[in-house]
Design a protein that fits this description.
The protein is of the alpha/beta class and 303 residues long. 43% of the residues lie in helices and 17% in strands. It folds into three domains: 55 residues, N-terminal domain of TfIIb (Single Sheet), CATH 2.20.25; 77 residues, no CATH class; 156 residues, Nucleotidyltransferase, domain 5. β2 and β3 form a beta hairpin. α4 packs across α5 and α5 crosses α11. The longest helix has 19 residues. 30% of the residues are buried.
């Protein structure tokens, strides 16, 4: 231990934190700080040295090898899902950032981080209520009809799962509902849907639902009812508000990534007016995020 570390206990605690880091080449925890890497747009990045394999490296915080700053990338993600078009977002960045980027670069950020964070949040256990509501929204992809299918917990307003498909058959609903069931920590007993014929068959397969069982309740609403599945329809209003200016998606792969990003934005980055908080705060109370929720989620997904 150096004299500086002996005289300053704060430095000692910092060095102990560094030892817990692992080398990305050999996996050793015998690492120390060794200088900083100067970048044009991201400032100075801390470098580490592995004493076992004698290699230097930087930590992968989710923005490894990215040429733009964390703030710029996460701002682009948040602004896009709040309603900016790609070209308007490019113009906006040109005003406030010295080095602008092409709108296609922003789209690549959206696809990359939506899928990355999506894998992470899909594995988080959710404290759900006993009631879920699920439905679908019709959209267009390359001129073809396509469907955004989603499942929402009615108490927390948390979107449990979603998917984007070219059809809305039993296979597609089964995939989305199984993901929703795997996330849930509490048993689901009540279901709210519209009158689509596929719902009873899917419920029987996924939840072992029995029509005449007193344990389960399946509430079917019609478009003429005053309370027509209003909670999830309000969610779909937010979906349409964002997608109506797109006209259509260019590919199914891109649509899946973008709509996964919207699910993340809805659950973690948008305060719900009905519950006066973010849905994840009720559904995943142990998860603590700062103000820049996109940056926090990306770092957690990269850990």
């Amino acid at each position: 231990m150096s004299r500086e570390e002996q005289s300053n206990p704060q430095n000692k605690s910092k060095s102990s934190e560094v030892i817990k880091l692992s080398c990305r080449f050999c996996g050793s925890t015998n690492v120390i700080k060794r200088g900083k890497r100067k970048t044009e747009n991201r400032g100075k990045i801390q470098r580490y040295l592995c004493k076992d394999c004698d290699k230097r490296f930087v930590l992968d915080d989710g923005f490894f090898r990215m040429r733009n700053s964390t703030q710029k990338i996460t701002y682009s993600l948040d602004a896009y899902f709040r309603g900016f078009s790609l070209r308007k977002l490019q113009e906006n960045l040109d005003v406030f950032h010295r080095h602008n980027c092409h709108y296609s670069t922003i789209l690549r950020w959206i696809r990359k981080y939506s899928l990355k964070v999506g894998k992470f949040v899909d594995e988080l256990p959710v404290k759900n209520s006993q009631t879920i509501s699920f439905d679908e929204v019709e959209m267009k992809t390359k001129g073809r009809k396509s469907w955004f299918i989603d499942v929402m917990d009615t108490r927390t307003r948390y979107m449990l799962s979603s998917g984007f498909f070219y059809s809305r058959g039993e296979k597609e609903f089964n995939e989305v509902l199984r993901l929703s069931k795997n996330k849930s920590t509490n048993e689901t007993l009540r279901f709210e849907t519209d009158g689509l014929n596929v719902y009873p068959r899917v419920l029987r397969k996924v939840y072992n639902y029995k029509k005449h069982s007193k344990k389960f309740t399946h509430k079917v609403t019609k478009s003429t009812d005053k309370s027509f599945n209003w909670k999830i329809e309000r969610l779909h209003g937010s979906v349409r508000e964002r997608t109506k200016i797109m006209r259509q998606f260019g590919s199914l792969h891109s649509a899946k990534a973008i709509m996964k990003g919207f699910e993340i934005y809805y659950n973690f980055c948008r305060k719900h007016q009905g519950i006066k908080c973010f849905p994840y705060e009720l559904a995943i109370p142990d998860l603590k995020l700062g103000k820049n929720k996109w940056a926090e989620l990306i770092k957690l997904a990269s850990a």
